[in-house]
# Entry
Amino acid sequence: MNSRRFHTKTRTGCTQCKQRRTKCDETKPNCTKCVRRNETCSYQSSSLTIIPHSFDLDTPPEKFASAPLPERTLTINSKIQEKIRESMREPPVDTQVSMAARYSLQNDPNDTLRLLHHYAISSCISISDSEGVLPMWRDVIPAMAFEKGNEYLLSILLAVTALHLALLQPNEEHTKAAVHHYTLALEQVQPHLTEISKANISPLFTFACLIPLYSFGIHETSLSTAPILPQTTELFTLIQGITAIVVTGYQWLNSGPLSFYTLPEVTDPSAPLPPALEASLALLSQRKPSTPPASVEEYSKALALLRHTFLLHQDSPNMKVAILPLPILVATGFVEKLKDSEPLALSILAHYAVILYRLRHHIWLRGWGKEIIDAVAELLGGSEEWRECMVWPQEQIEEREEGEEGGDC
# Structure
């Protein structure tokens, strides 16, 4: 007797779920799985929502973002849909450089306006992972930054934008502006960190997300002089500040304007990874200490998060936010092990750096992956036991560099 279980198929699911061969819940304008994966759902591009301009300009941005507004839907053809999507994608680097040249800072009273304009037309796109979250970075967060009491958020937005200009158009004026606004932001935020509340949880969370972005980007400027591994442990410490804010104000954050902007989820936690990577992760797992219990737990958690990171990258190879769960959620003790240059901690870091290397086409992540892997390989090169753990990360760099030289990107 045939015991196969059958399920009802649907042919009206979104394109993304069809490509992943997963069941779509058909929620519109974005299905639940696309929201969780931080992807643009094909439902979103099937119509254009027109919001009338008869709304109250005094409405706070968080209410404007969530309140139901009268609307009408206009069906548009595929060519117009594609034009809209193109306007929301990150332009090629040469286009960004050309745009940056038009808004170079001049050290005059108009520099703030130049930065705000550059943020609106370029920087916000470079920060966003998908078209679905671009409106948040382009519209909701700047409006939040202009609210009274959120000066620190405006300062960090200006710092990130000036740094974006510095990465596109290396210029002492751009770097100086980035450092000035970053230093000011750190001073302005201090009083708020001891008084986290429902009123400030959203701007503080956004601030905490932008700090590591700035730290990633500053690495490619002339101001970056420290060795790569100390920079990495400092970056992990900064990123863990996000955890403290989220833990303190999770309930408020979950009911605020940024409630949908959470860490991405893996489509299938039990999905296999490529065989060579599975073998390398198994090798790392074999190197775990058996005592003390605290170290066993810290390494087990780090290895689980490493696997989670590779699954996220496997689901969405271009997603920058995939690099955040490990440094945010890893135990503080693991970061201390990195600082102490423990071989297993460094080997885990080198595997994590493969994701950074694969995302090196993003302007904020250039340079990190290869430099980390090379630095760890140099430190562990004297030990045959740990050299074995570095084979896979080093192969990933060598294979891709050879491919690029041959024109196969």
In short: The chain has 19 helices and two strands.
